[in-house]
Write a structure and sequence with these properties.
Elements lengths: L14 H10 L2 E7 L5 E7 L1 E2 L6 E5 L4 H8 L2 E7 L12 E14 L2 H12 L6 H11 L4 E16 L2
Antiparallel strand pairs: 1-2, 1-5, 3-4, 4-7, 5-6, 6-7
């Protein structure tokens, strides 16, 4: 499959910037092919793993998202930063990254717990809380990995 490139080359973000945004931002919107072929997008927290380049999500064992992924593994994930304003300007400049790829279920519990720890550290440094949550909810946690096929990013000025 050929993926589209950013239409305005001067707006394209370098790959390193895309990876930084994926690693630093806490949330994005995961879109899958839902019921009846309709897109189904949901806000998700995520973990970009520098070791393998995959993006990890955790969720419950069942529901619309899980059913959709099991029917069709294709997905996109969009992350935006909080933006910035240049001095003297009202317009917000926003960097966004879109990742296209396929989602696979992570089966190994130690991998799930390890990624869950790393994801949790994006939100808190309270190791006791993290371990208590993994012990309590870990056995009921499902984890998916988005394996990127194409990553693109751009900067857009609101004006």
């Amino acid at each position: 499959m050929m993926f589209r490139e950013v239409a305005r080359e001067n707006r394209r973000l370098p790959r390193e910037e895309c990876i930084r945004i994926l690693a630093e931002e806490k949330r994005g919107v995961l879109s899958v092919i839902g019921d009846g072929g309709y897109p189904y997008g949901m806000p998700m927290n995520h973990f970009y793993c520098p070791d393998d380049g995959n993006i990890y999500f955790h969720c419950g064992m069942s529901g619309h998202r899980t059913d959709s992924i099991r029917k069709d593994s294709r997905a996109s994930f969009c992350v935006c930063d909080s933006g910035f304003r240049l001095e003297g300007e009202w317009a917000l400049n926003i960097r966004s990254v879109i990742v296209f790829g396929r989602i696979e279920e992570v089966a190994d519990k130690e991998t799930i717990y390890g990624i869950a720890r790393r994801l949790s550290r994006k939100f808190t440094d309270d190791e006791r809380y993290i371990e208590d949550e993994i012990e309590r909810a870990g056995p009921r946690t499902m984890m998916f990995a988005l394996i990127p096929e194409h990553i693109t990013g751009k900067i857009v000025k609101e004006s």
